[in-house]
Amino acid sequence: MDPRPATPADIPELVRLRAVALEGLGVDPGPADAPWRASARDWFAERLTGREDLRCLVVGGDPGERLAATGLAWVTYHLPSPPRPDGRRGYVDGMVTDVTARGHGHARRIVDALTAWLGSLGVHYVQLHASEAGAPVYRAAGFVDGAYPGMDLTLTL
User: Fold this and answer.
1) In DSSP terms, which residues pair with 88 in a beta bridge?
2) Distance between CA atoms of 16 and 36, rounded to whole angstroms?
3) Is 128 in contact with 91 (CB distance < 8 Å)?
4) CA of 15: how far to CAs of 21, 57, 76, 78, 81, in Å?
5) Across the chain, where does the E strand assignment appear?
6) pLDDT tens digit string along 100-122?
7) The pTM is what?
8) For 8-59, what is each residue's pLDDT tens digit?
9) 8 A C-beta contact, residue 127 and residue 92
10) Cα separations (Å) of 118 from 30, 43, 125?
């Protein structure tokens, strides 16, 4: 089954799959009315239409039906450098396959389609953060360990 672009009708399933991803990362997604879910619905609603620099793909049923997998990519903008004169990079995020649909190549087809889309935009450098479970999929698609060590900071507001 080939990936298709997500539509606003897919938003409830995209949020459900986000919860599946969080559980896989050891994060309790909380109840169906957890505040993050409303924020996620708004986030998807804002980004699924009218954005030329973001693509969300899904595998599964028709819009509004149960989905097997999803992933998205967008263009990020950074300072130019010799290897990336325009400063653009691709970022792959939100990759998740429902537990019952794993092992059928859905994630790989989504990653391949997203990286092809980024390439069609002239973006030649793509980053992502990989879970232990997802790393083999990304390696098979040609990703390698990043050259730059990462650091995080959580601000107390």
Assistant:
1) 77
2) 12
3) yes
4) 10, 14, 23, 29, 36
5) 4-5, 54-60, 67-77, 88-97, 126-128
6) 999 999 999 999 999 999 999 99
7) 0.94
8) 999 999 999 999 999 999 999 999 999 999 999 999 999 998 899 999 999 9
9) yes
10) 34, 21, 9
